[in-house]
Amino acid sequence: MHAEVLPTAPGRVRPLRMLLSAYAVSQFGNWLFRTGVVYFAYNQSHGSAALLTTAIALVYLPVLVGSRILAPLADRWDTRRTLIGLDVLRALSLCILLATTLAGGTITTGATITAMAVLSLLTPLFTASQTAYLRQTLPTDGMPAALAAVSRIDWIMFILGTASAPLMLQISNLPTLITLDIVTFVVSALLLVRLPPAPVHPAGAGSPDDATTGTGRARLATSSRWLLAAVFALNAGAGVINLYPNVVARNYLGGGATWLSVINLANGVGAVIGATLAGRVSRSHGLRPGILAAVAVAVSLVGMTFVTTAWIAVLASSTMLLAGQVFAVVFQARILADEPVERAGRASGLFTLGTFAGVTVSVLLFLGLTAVGPPHRSFTVLLLLGAGTALISALIGQVASRRFGTGVPVTTAVPARPEPAPAGSDAEAEAEPRAGLVRAAGRTFATGVTVVSTVKSLVPHAATVNSFVTVSLDPALVSICVDRTARLHTFLEADSPLGITILSAAQRNTAVHFADRNRALGQAQFDGHAWRQGKETGAPLLEEGHAWLECRVERLITAGDHSIVLARVLSFAIAEPDDGHGPLVFAGGRFRSLPDHRSEPGGTT
Description:
By secondary structure, the chain is α+β, with helices and mostly antiparallel strands. The chain is 58% helix and 12% strand. It is built from 16 helices and 12 strands. The longest helix has 35 residues, at 10-44.
């Protein structure tokens, strides 16, 4: 098995620029419309905190629904066509609202919020499709930089959109903002038409027949579930930032639209800096920058309690968003790295779900606290509660880092003068032949053959693996390499039991069986293959093997499209020397046996 670091060739850069350009155009209109609607509703109600909170909650609830139900569709549908279709659908939704107004109706607060709710429902599928396209197109170690670029564009457009909307409402009207938003969606769709389709990954690899829930849906990796819990906790504390600019500008600084634009501008600049910083630190430092960012968010939330001191309020909120972007990029990149490519859309949707579920909790807390106590004291209590929740997020991240590793990618030395990659569509055309050459080169290296087994939630699983090596004698460590789209990968995490049967020359059929993707799963896959339960781990060990090891997984290290599974050896046994079977060997694409197949004397430790 081999891990290859692919260069970012011009053929890959061009689609990325096209995708990000389309995203920038649509996000400008999106932020302009969203900010204009919220500010319009807030002013129509004469600064009603209840209406502001209700409006934001009604916008976020569709995002929650879309994240859970619609986002996984990105893994089933063509991502490019989905992105184009969503831009067209969003433009049509706003056309209906605008047509009603031009026909003689009036734009009401309810109608605009409903339109924004429709856009919010579609947002998770758009985000998931965009993320899935990036995951299908880029190598794993290229995702942090790509996510940082997306975040940076989002916040640059946030600066332009949110700073412009309140000022435009003073010199124009809401229908003008709606028209401009329609135009941005149309332009975005036209740019996406020129986007090449994402590479097609093998069907069935790592699909729902891996480790599944009762509904048949593949489970997320345990590391992903921990990180999603941290994402929820952080946003439950930091979600108040969605209310903070409006509340502080109107109720404490007395500047209305002017102070709202100033706070939004400062927040956007902080977020852009944070996204830029995240793209540089996450690749080389793993989860650590995200954990430190969660602590910085907590400190910033304490600073945000000084709502009557303008410069402290503005600085604290912008610093909070800076740290929040570092956290988001680092944790999302790790979640996407821990999940197979064909589940990128679902992983993106759950990340969005965790984010907006946390924000919704924060908004509902604001509504509840302001209803029972003085506004200023209630707002301060909310901010301090948020700081505590952010610290809990940092703690969860730290525990996850210790259990599953920081996720620092394995680096590969790059030649001083790399061969230039072909430009245009030829880069994609050469990717498969290059992979074939690497695979062919690997076949020239003779290896033993193992069946690696494990058990998770009482469900056993095994697979044929020939990328098995000893790593260390003291402590006793071994490693295997597992394709990130393989069923076996979904069963493995830190401390997973591992049974390794080194196959004998008489077990060629066994090797073929456990390499067959269409074999039965669970206990049924062992039918016709005698096995016993390991004494140390409970993992299955096949009878008639040449040798056996029982291990516990120490950590999984991402290496291109594979994971290096480092395991601690707990016990080892070798077959009796007079059983007549030497080890099975794989070389030149064929199973072979050694001429002198008698094993050396050995025993059990």
